[in-house]
Design a protein that fits this description.
Elements: H1 11-21, H2 23-40, H3 42-45, H4 86-122, H5 124-138, H6 142-153, H7 158-184, H8 188-195, H9 200-212, H10 215-236, H11 248-255, H12 265-292
Helix pairs in contact: 2-4, 2-12, 4-5, 4-7, 4-10, 4-12, 5-7, 6-7, 7-9, 7-10, 8-9, 10-11, 10-12, 11-12
């Protein structure tokens, strides 16, 4: 009888096992998965298309949730002043928030990562100019920059909101990437690659980027929640996505006018979804930070 030696687990399996042992991270991932699936399949899951004017009726205006007196199906979470189903509007509104969040994080991480790589790799006057420009942007509030940008165009669209938030969002990625590059480029394997005549492009792509990019994942997880909250803030102020686009922030803004009338569900329901998204992202960011730097858990 021959003894077989089990093959060592792959890095992906080890990562999955460590992730499954972190109950809070799994809980956060579960909530985000539900939100993503709800947003993705909103046209099939929502009892009503809240932006199909032919399906709306003022007779259904301000109905309470189904468990309260006066509530009725299929308006399980009640309706707003226009007769739109709250649950349906949350599902469609989550799509807008997630699209803005994913788009901004993708753009800012790519732009900031590239700028930080250039600054850290080449250094000198180029590094000085880039970092001072970043410091100048950081001296202003991201919300203020976004408001000024949207005010210049005197209009609103999802693309403009994405661009407005991205203007000031790349700086933290650039600073983080630059710090990582400054450490990685002094490693022995980078020095060895230079010694055998490797080009700067090959060194950057093959050796520096794979070893310096990891901290950006933590920044992205945290920034995702910040971006969603900022989009909600802009929509709450009436300068975010247009009224034809559903948004969690817009729902809260419209519900605030009725909070003293006892219609708490107009704010509470979208507020809980918004809070759940951000809370879940923070749980995942904590787990990522400990994976990248095990000393963070000590």
């Amino acid at each position: 009888m021959t003894n077989s030696i089990a093959a060592p687990a792959s890095p992906g399996r080890k990562l999955l096992r460590r992730f499954l042992r972190r109950k809070l991270a799994v809980f956060g991932a579960g909530i985000l998965t539900l939100v993503f699936l709800g947003a993705l399949f909103a046209p099939w899951l929502a009892p009503q298309n809240p932006y199909d004017l032919l399906s709306l009726s003022m007779d259904n205006s301000l109905l309470p949730p189904i468990w309260a007196e006066g509530g009725q199906a299929p308006f399980y979470l009640g309706t707003d002043v226009q007769g739109r189903d709250i649950l349906s509007t949350i599902l469609y509104g989550s799509r807008t928030s997630l699209i803005v969040g994913v788009s901004v994080v993708f753009l800012t991480s790519i732009i900031g990562g590239f700028v930080g790589l250039i600054a850290g790799f080449y250094g000198g006057w180029l590094d000085t100019i880039i970092m001072r420009m970043g410091d100048s942007i950081l001296s202003f509030s991201t919300t203020l920059i976004a408001m000024l940008f949207l005010g210049l165009f005197q209009g609103s669209s999802m693309l403009l909101v994405i661009c407005a938030i991205s203007i000031g969002g790349w700086v933290q990625y650039a600073r983080t990437m630059r710090s990582s590059v400054l450490v990685v480029k002094e490693e022995d394997y980078v020095t060895g690659a230079r010694a055998i005549g490797a080009s700067n492009f090959r060194i950057a792509i093959k050796h520096i980027v794979p070893n310096a990019f990891a901290p950006l994942f933590v920044i992205a997880a945290i920034d995702f929640g910040v971006v969603i909250m900022l989009e909600a803030t802009l929509s709450f102020l009436g300068i975010g996505v247009p009224i034809t686009e559903p948004s969690l922030g817009m729902m809260i803004a419209q519900g605030k006018d009725f909070i003293y009338a006892g219609l708490w569900y107009l704010i509470l329901c979208p507020g809980i979804v918004l809070m759940s998204i951000i809370f879940s992202l923070n749980l995942l960011a904590d787990w990522l930070s400990e994976e990248i730097d095990p000393r963070a858990s000590k």
